[in-house]
User: Which sequence fits this backbone?
């Protein structure tokens, strides 16, 4: 009997890896073998049948489930158990494929990745869409390899787990729909981790912008979906006016800068915006990538939210919502949205349009770091 220890084995000429599921590759031939793939923790069997090799081409089996499951693979020949291998990530080359992650995905997902590495001790490679995004994390995780997606090959890895936003219709890729959980809890479900919503470590500030700009607050008003934004037409103007009258400069992290706010001078790269957030007193905004960035930097974030329930975003003591009106539709509406400009419930985004500037301002005043002049 042979026990696989890498993603390529010479036992019976059979190859095995766990890239996007348990993948067993039988060579060309004429043998009749028996394959059983199970989850030992609950005894569930996803495949238990004979496999007939052919002289023409390889015979392959792959599980539908692509997330982290501690598979056990057993192969019999002529009634004799010849291969048994249970997934063991310790010391193995493992890849987390986050190539489709935007900033608002990468930050919570990397929080789970850090816990995954400590829990299972693999030699971990992370795929991110570009170098700029990887730069946020690379200095703080020297034990990780950050790889460009075009350089990925399954032959280099024992296991690879893809990350994407899957719903109930794509349940083979995730144990639960991404709409049911916060982004970090969702990543935990893919990796079998418990991160307790702890943020990942981010690179230190490349510039001391607090010294250069003085006392300031960062705002972020744009998000991937309009239903995630603060849809009170007068809200932002009143908040910015209040902050400025309170002695703060206001820097808008979004590309489209709000009237009355300032933008980062010079090249507004993600790394420079990280420095800007590192230097701010606090942040006010929505659950955008920059909102997640401020949270991961340890800044107090006043979060204006309506389409998610409490706990559906990053944790903050300064969440502003209105549970007396329709809210939380993100967890139940059909995704992707047919129209980003239309309220999924047909109620003109009342979940956030009903949130007043006064509510947000009163919450800002509760932030210990906030000091009116």
Assistant:
């Amino acid at each position: 009997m042979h026990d696989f220890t890498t993603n390529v084995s010479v036992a019976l000429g059979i190859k095995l890896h766990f890239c996007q599921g348990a993948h067993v590759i039988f060579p060309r031939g004429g043998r009749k073998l028996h394959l059983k793939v199970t989850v030992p923790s609950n005894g569930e069997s996803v495949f238990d049948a004979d496999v007939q090799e052919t002289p023409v081409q390889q015979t392959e089996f792959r599980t539908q489930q692509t997330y982290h499951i501690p598979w056990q693979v057993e192969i019999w020949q002529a009634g004799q158990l010849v291969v048994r291998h249970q997934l063991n990530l310790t010391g193995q080359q493992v890849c987390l494929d986050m190539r489709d992650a935007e900033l608002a995905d990468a930050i919570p997902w990397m929080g789970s990745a850090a816990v995954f590495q400590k829990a299972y001790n693999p030699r971990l490679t992370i795929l991110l869409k570009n170098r700029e995004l990887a730069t946020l994390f690379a200095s703080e995780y020297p034990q990780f390899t950050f790889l460009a997606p075009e350089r990925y090959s399954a032959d280099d890895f024992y296991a690879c787990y893809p990350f994407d936003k899957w719903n109930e219709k794509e349940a083979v890729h995730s144990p639960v729909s991404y709409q049911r959980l916060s982004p970090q809890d969702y990543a935990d479900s893919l990796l079998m981790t418990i991160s307790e919503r702890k943020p990942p470590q981010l690179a230190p500030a490349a510039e001391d912008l607090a010294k250069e700009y003085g006392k300031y607050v960062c705002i972020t008003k744009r998000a991937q979906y309009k239903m995630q934004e603060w849809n009170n037409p007068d809200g932002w103007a009143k908040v910015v006016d209040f902050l400025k009258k309170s002695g703060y400069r206001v820097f808008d992290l979004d590309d489209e800068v709000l009237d009355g706010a300032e933008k980062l001078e010079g090249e507004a790269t993600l790394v420079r915006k990280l420095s800007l957030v590192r230097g701010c007193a606090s942040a006010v905004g929505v659950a955008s990538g920059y909102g997640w960035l401020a949270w991961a930097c340890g800044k107090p974030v006043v979060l204006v939210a309506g389409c998610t329930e409490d706990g559906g975003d990053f944790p903050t003591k300064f969440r502003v919502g209105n549970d007396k009106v329709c809210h939380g539709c993100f967890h139940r509406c059909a995704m992707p949205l047919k129209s980003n400009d239309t309220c999924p419930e047909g109620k003109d985004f009342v979940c956030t349009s009903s949130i007043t500037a006064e509510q947000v301002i009163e919450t800002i005043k509760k932030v210990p770091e906030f000091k009116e002049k």
In short: The longest strand covers residues 44-52. Residues 32 and 52 are 5 Å apart (CA to CA).
